[in-house]
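Handout, page 2. Input:
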Amino acid sequence: MRVTVVGAANIDIITKSKAKIVPEDSNPSDVKLTAGGVGRNIASAIAKQGADVTLITAVGSDPLGALLKDSCDELGINTEPWIIKENISTGVYLATLESDGELYAAFNAMNAPESITRGDITKQKSHIIETDLLVLDLNLTEKIIELCLELRGDEPVMVDVVSAPKAHRIATMLDKVDILKLNKFEAEELTGISLDTKERVKQAGFSLVKKGVGRVFITLGMAGVFACDRQNSIFVPAIPVAVKDVTGAGDAFAAGVALSLNKDLRAQAQQGIEFATEHLKQMVK
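Output:
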């Protein structure tokens, strides 16, 4: 299977408190620096399964950008179409985790993927057209998302919403999306529905299908995943696992869904959960 991912690659700086976080105080923590970014994480998880994956992203011409490219090359990700920007800094994602591994707060600087131009994408259009699945993350601007969808035509496209503040970037193009992956907060932002009951989760999912999405996957943390298409809807429970770090689990879920493109709805959701669970297990030290 060939997959092309267009989205963010950045450096993750993760701080994990050794005890419950006390606001407005200095908290003893462990810190790690790793390669990350939604697009890069999805591509990485796909590459580890032996699939042929190309990542189109933008980074700065700085040491962090070189570090990211080297890490992707080592995984077998095709980085030939990377866009190196002289006047842009490589993206950085900073996350603070509670002692139990749950996210306390996160910040990102994503000027690099947002600097991608129509010319940049046009030069790489063969990678977008000649692939089994195109995966987009919403760190891209609306104009670039629109262009990628236009180049793709009627061929399969998957979109990862990334974050609630960026959900609006796909709002007017949902009829061109075959697979939409989003979490509870992103679904609330995109639909205007509060997902405080199973019935409202279902309502939100079907509202997106009515707007043209082929399949919708809403991740609900420990409550599992809701998935629906035009005929079916299911809730799939999470697999119990000792959580040490949730960073990247949603991206692993997205990779599982992408690699099960031709499976039925339940099998696709289940594979996503299995990928996310395996990712969480690997984070356990």
